[in-house]
Amino acid sequence: MTILVLADRARFAGFPHAPDTEAATAGQVLPATAVRDADPTASPPELRTVAGDTVFVDSRDTAALERFCAEHRIPVRRRTDIWGDLLEPFLDTWFDDRHHTATLDRLARGGVGRDEAVRIRRRVGPLMAAYNSLHWDWCHLGLADLLAAAASDHVPAELRVPPQDRAAFRAWAMEIADRPVRTDTA
């Protein structure tokens, strides 16, 4: 998605996952007042709305995002990538037990306990395994990948989230993504 920075708002072109904020869904415009914080270093870069939604920005527009945040005094916050940790088992790579334990510890600190992590991974596992069988990503899968997989024509229909359930699925995923304690403000 491309971000066009306007005086007091951001306009998005090619926006695959419209945020649930009324301002953004009407014309793909997000006023600066609707942005809680941003993380230009995330993969992909992101804005977090006051409502708790994550809005992804094309990495080619990182500089525009940084200017938008500076001009409107939007806090830049680095947060734990909860979905990156939750989706780690579906990467095309292998991790040892010590790494798995460290991941579960990070999830717990971010508000997702071990039992919940197991339930979430069971819920999204077949979807993400099918999605990554096409991409063979071995570095990172995150919230953007989860949302893309949910509606991807490249994933078997029986594994996709049905259109009538996507808003609820998205809200569930956003709630989980919004849990991490923000620890580093740039």
Folded structure, characterized:
The protein has helices spanning about 20-25, 60-70, 80-85, 95-110, 115-135, 145-150, 165-175; strands spanning about 1-5, 10-15, 30, 35-40, 45-50, 55, 75-80, 185. Helix 5 packs across helix 6 (about 145-150) and helix 6 (about 145-150) packs antiparallel against helix 7 (about 165-175). About 40% of the residues lie in helices and about 15% in strands. The protein is α+β, with helices and mostly antiparallel strands. It has a 3-stranded antiparallel beta sheet. Strands 4-5-6 form a 3-stranded antiparallel beta sheet, with no helix packed on it. Strands 7-8 form a two-stranded antiparallel sheet.
What would you say about this model in short?
The protein is of the alpha+beta class and 186 residues long. The chain has helices at residues 22-25, 62-71, 82-86, 97-109, 114-135, 143-151, 166-177; strands at residues 2-5, 9-13, 29-31, 35-39, 46-49, 54-56, 77-78, 184-185.
